[in-house]
Design brief:
The chain has about 450 residues and is mainly alpha-helical. Helices cover about 75% and strands about 0% of the residues. The protein has 17 helices and no strands.
Amino acid sequence: MPDPRPGIKWVLLATILPGAMISLDMTIVSVALVPIQGYFNASAVAIHWIMTSYILAFAATVALSGRISDKTGPTRSLVAGVVLFMAASVLCGLANNEYFLIAGRSLQGLGSGLIQPSAMAIIINRAGKDRVGRMMSIYIASCIAFLTIGPLIGGGITQYLSWRFVFWLNLPIGILAIIFLALASPPKTGNPAIRLDIIGAVTLVVSMGAITLGLQQGNSWGWSSFPTLAACLGGLALLAVFLLGELRLKDPLIDIRIFRTQEFLVDIISMFCVRCGIMGLTVSIALYLQHTLGMKPFSAGIAIMPVVLAFLFGTLVSGVVFDKIGARLPIFAGMLLMAAGFSAIAFLSFDNNYLRILPGLLVVGAGAGLLSAATTDAVSRVKQEIRGQISGIIQTVRQAGGICGIAAMGGLNMNQAGFKLASFRSAAIIAMGLSLAFFFIPLYIRIKKCFKSDGPNKFH
């Protein structure tokens, strides 16, 4: 039967390709850091900020970008994000010192903030209620696939061409995305009447930046040092001021009242816990494979591949299940699988043997994939005109969860000399606790009334 919504394939291509740029740059740059450090003779701190500056800019501005998407329309916002990301990539490739490169990476983070909420809003708006789960699962799975192949592509480019081409690779991808978006011709309508809360946006950016800075630098500064405490506590205080101020506004940057809806709150908690556990465990896996088992980086990347494939499988399954019966089953099944997988890693790994932890990792990957239904459910529940804002909230929560997970694992002193099997088990136990905590929280807020088995219902 012909597709009743012409252009849906072009829409997928036009949104997947910008997502590919974001995903690739999260991993492709990591394998180029050593050549970059040697080229600039840069310090370890500067190399750290080449990665952190991207996360800071992304996490601190994505909520504002979501609101801009609602005001101008997701199509215009997506094009602006792609153009900004391409321009920033050119600057990164032309960098003549590490500080220039850090500035370019920050601009890439701003572009990512515009791209992600706009792409998700376009997919939801165009897919239709009957296929939203499958379309979102394809988008998420595609982003994860590019995230996975990033180190392989980056290694080849860096070795045979130059680290600069790692950034210039984004140019043809961005151009193709704009061409496909023109072919898809999604509606460009927005709501110009929406007012942007500039003061709130600045407060949120500063608060998120301060919290991220404190968590990222806590291991090097010392968790009880004045700079770490000042950054984290000051950021939390500013965040509280921001939230209280948003409640008084007619057009808030983030509508805090949305969190009163139990099903949306469950989705958000799910995404935070999953990203926290997965990112934290990902860091510990990389250290464990290389420092404890003695694997080379390329071999370690191959060893992690089965986990990513399990994640892709779970993501695709969750989309099909979501379209048929809603979000309740994939969310609860996913969280239980993650808890079971983390438990297997924590308590069944008796020696330094990769094959002993592999079954647990596969179960964790599949569970995390099923939990992608939470993202689809959260975005599809709200009115079309605020989907950009909701997508921005989702990305902010994800980045915050990932940063917290990495910081928690960093607190285990997982360094080259001291990272042992015991540290890896501790990481798994922390992640297991997060999974179990989420499973019981919805029971407290009467989760049975949140998710209906007949699919998602919108709230207004």
